[in-house]
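Note to self: keep these together.
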Amino acid sequence: MDLVGLLKSQFLCHLVFCYVFIASGLIVNTLQLCTLVLWPIDKQLFRRLNCRLSYCVSSQLVMLLEWWSGTECVIYTDPRAYPTFGKENAIVVLNHKFEIDFLCGWSLAERFGVLGGSKVLAKKELAYVPIIGWMWYFTEMVFCTRKWFLIHCEGTRFTEKKHQISMQVAQAKGLPSLKHHLLPRTKGFAVTVRSLRNFLIHCEGTRFTEKKHQISMQVAQAKGLPSLKHHLLPRTKGFAVTVRSLRNVVSAVYDCTLNFRNNENPTLLGVLNGRKYHADMYVRRIPLEQVPEDEDQCSAWLHRLYQEKDAFQEEYYRTGTFPETPMVPSRRPWTLLNWLFWASLLLYPFFRFLVSMVSSGSSLTLAGFVLVFFVASMGVRWMIGVTEIDKGSAYGNMDSKQKQRD
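Structure:
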């Protein structure tokens, strides 16, 4: 290991990164909370501010990947489709096998200038993760249970009086009456989705493991579907709802298939230690017109897509490369400048406070500092653990009969 690599693996460096990330993240979350006063006044201004505030947090993780770790992601794609990347709204379908697959997606979004406006279909539990989850909540990220989207398009709780007024509005607009629901508020949903640039969805629903793959293929066999070697069976309902909801908003589906050279097993902890990984991603641009509108046909289309993705992965393991032309989008300096801004703002008072505590000689003060430091370290380790495959959700490990009912 060279001197630079040894330095990157030192705990003191990790402490600096963790302190800057936690302190700046909590400041950003507080500022986001303050922007709530804008919601009833100007929703667009609220969204623009939160888009930029969220960039201050997410770009720090991208900085770790690109500038600290030095990980490079090569895109294999059609040169005719490449100029459209970052210039249109799209649904991004990415395989979910690696601990840092989301970070590679963020890195490419940043290089195409759409990181701040990108959204993801995330599991509900992530909304409670400090900093990242809270940041996503204020950017109106789409959280879902394992079955359905958590979106209340009616805008308010159902009552008989509200239902009567809502149906009068429906009649005036020439819309069909609803018996058990209020008229949905379409404008707020449309404005929300129009603020996005890319909408990321992991159709497999959970990260790939051998146990989950075995159960998933049992379900595939029971349903008469072809087996997949490198993916789980895609969850088609969420994708169908996404396509139906965004059909007039997005232009294409980006089918992204990610893998790492030399059978690398990348981890977020490895990135923090400065380890360089070599990612390859095959990106296909599929016009949304080619995705069927009918839910059953859309489901069949998605299954065929994953069979093709599986073939691409098999070819990659055999040859070490994907089809099409390899390209490397240029790295932008804004993630590094953002981190340097927060570091210069937060590190000086931190070290000054640390020196004053040490010079005070108070054992009680030092014990309190050690306790706070220990709790903060455990908190960061817990957040990193959210990305670890071994500590992933139990979703996908359920009984086959339960999955067949989906």
